[in-house]
Task: structure prediction
Amino acid sequence: MTKVSAALVKEFQSIVSEQNVFVSEAERMAYSYDAAVLEPVMPAIVVAPTDKEQLCKVVKLAYENDMPITVRGSGTNLSGCTIPSAEGNAIVILTNRLNRILEINEQDLYAVVEPGVVTAQFAATVAQKNLLYPPDPGSQAVSTLGGNVACNAGGLRALKYGVTKDYLMGMEFVDYNGNLIKSGSRTVKCVTGYNMPGMMVSSEGTLGVFAELIVKLVPPPKASKAMMAIFDDINQASEAVAGIIAAHIVPCTLEFLDQVTLETVEAATKAGLPVDAAAILLIEVDGGHVQMVEDDAAEVVAICQKCGARSVDMAKDAAHKNKLWEARRAALPSLARAKPTTVLEDATVPRSQIPAMVAAVNDIAKKYALRIGTFGHAGDGNLHPTIMCDRRDKEEFKRVEAAVDEIFDVALKLQGTLSGEHGIGIAKAKWMEKETNKATVDFSKNLRRALDPKYLFNAGKKVL
Ligand SMILES: Cc1cc2nc3c(=O)[nH]c(=O)nc-3n(C[C@H](O)[C@H](O)[C@H](O)COP(=O)(O)OP(=O)(O)OC[C@H]3O[C@@H](n4cnc5c(N)ncnc54)[C@H](O)[C@@H]3O)c2cc1C
Result:
């Protein structure tokens, strides 16, 4: 039984229609968890507005009734930031029906979208107009642009093209009173008022609800070259990463897969990966001039060879490249298939510290007798140590938790950060003070209280 009164259910129905309000146990259960390995919490009600006027009214009504509010796009986040708050009358506001692309401006290179537009569908739509929306998280086939902004999602192209925040030009969001707040614009430059879109990036549903986003588009590159470099020593792979950057070549993709990951992906996909290698790098260079791209690719090959690469295989054509890139995209699903539970971490270190981080993760795996595969965005130091385990095995899971704590400790000691792109949510909130300090946490709480006096927006997430 939902803990929301029948009268209040009716009020929500009168705003969004009966078919967009979910109160049965089975329906609510579907929104009690996300992609993080955390305990589910049942919301009392799930409401799915279909336009921004409805969104404003739903937020206002929920806030007036003291309902803890969790906004949800597709629920693919990995930090528990869409698990409803524990209070009995929690509401999930679903934004996936606010899914219209409102404008694609080919002259001024921007688009206006609703927050529930699916990332890959948006990218494919703008690609038809020969434009590029670069942020490409591994979850892009499902994730929403609103979720991407709230988590500042990155992707394979982040090294050269940046992450979601680099493409956000403006937005409208709903505050706790149900008012529509507008900030940023369709212009390249805009300093009118505070930079509220900047504040909303990475806010993880704690400051307000996005209703509309203005995002930047760029012309696509005219040429690209992709390759796989195979190494027998992880340090050599790392030196190659440093060497490429030191040569002032900025590949659009510079991804790393370690031996455990290679073995697991190969077992799942039979993609022909070198399972006896210590690590591989997947590298792509692109640009506006074919010859420049050829030259960069040749230099990257030379650097990899100088650093000791066993071989560097150039992708013959787009299909060959896609096959290699599919192997990278299959890393998480393959590791996830290996055991019932997958704990995916997001520790990020300065690029030069990748060998130290990978070595530490391997030591931690040995110490706690765990199987950990590490892959990630070598070009930006964003690694994903992934622990394959079974949550039902309580003894093993205690070791997993201890290993995760140590992974964070090492990342911070190496001047890194808790999360490069997956967010803090519930999973990492207890670590916030350790990376920053108490004053920073207090400042964040004050900001939050100013924008959400009753502390109802995603309570228990990000800042405790
Ligand atoms: C297989 C897999 C691969 C992944 N790969 C990547 C990757 O390469 N890079 C990366 O960065 N992440 C990755 N992720 C994590 C995740 O997909 C991203 O964080 C993504 O941005 C979440 O989008 P979503 O629509 O699912 O958001 P949700 O999970 O629904 O929500 C995420 C956060 O956004 C908030 N939110 C959603 N919509 C709104 C809104 N309209 N207004 C205000 N707040 C809102 C929610 O409250 C929540 O705090 C991956 C996840 C999986 C499962």
Summary: The chain has a mean pLDDT of 94. The chain has three domains: 6-94, 103-216, 223-413.
